[in-house]
Amino acid sequence: METFTDFSTALNLVATATDEARPLPGFAQDSLLFKDLPAHLYHADRDALSCSLLKPLLVSPAHFQTALTARHSDSDAKDFGTLLHLLLLQPHLVGQEVAVYPEIVHPTTKAYREFVETNALKLVVDEPTFSAARQLADKVHETPYKGRPLGRFIEESMTEVSIYFTEPTTGLRLRVRHDIYHPDLAFDLKSTRHASVNLFSRDAVVKFDYDLQAFMYSLGRSLYEGTSDAKPFVFIAAESNEPFSVHTLSASNSFLTNGAKKFQECLSVYNACVATGHWPDLSSDGEIEIEHWQQFTPMRAWVAGHSRT
Question: What is the model's pTM?
Fold first, then answer.
């Protein structure tokens, strides 16, 4: 397999391979849309900043630097999300990228270890996991949105579309990858352990910074298309366990505004650190304060119970 010393070389190879692989120039200068950029090339790019790369800056510059070289660990939740994306958005790749172990996984068994070794370049899942993901994919397809099944919107869309653009204020090169690029909407598929909207929304802002993602993706698309009004950004939150609840949740103005603040903070911190060559961590010197709701109040309920004996 040929290796590349930098991502630009890989992009140029993709761009010149076939007519279908060539990027489509957009309205804003240097904005490009790749319809078929392989996922491993997109995620390996370090020449343009993605939302995932920017998020650690909300913790500290040092966390950003660490994330650049960190090895990404697999997890059951991440694997399930990847499988769901393939089944829904790139079903033609499932046979190439997924290997289904015909039983329930027992990691210590010789048969399973041999199966993993044989399929080292594929996503390995067991039959129950594959069946659950397929059921959820079918449920998403059938879920109504604006009077039509979501599957119809997916059929009318480009999927796994990569957009490269230059942020006008800072001049930084950025990239986004839309799950479902519909002419009138932008959908983003999220598998979630939460069945309720409230719990998903809490994690969306506090844990996963989906508000940052929604704003950055909307900005990239608007610059590419040359529009001042962003297309509605809609999360498809799909419960990863039965009964497989599916929510379609539009990003509100307040949600996008909060994401814009995070976005501006990330770019400001990044530029400041590049200019100074200093990437500080969270080390500090201070005191731990107790909030009023953390105050300890002795209850001694056991005293009353003991006195009755």
Answer: 0.86
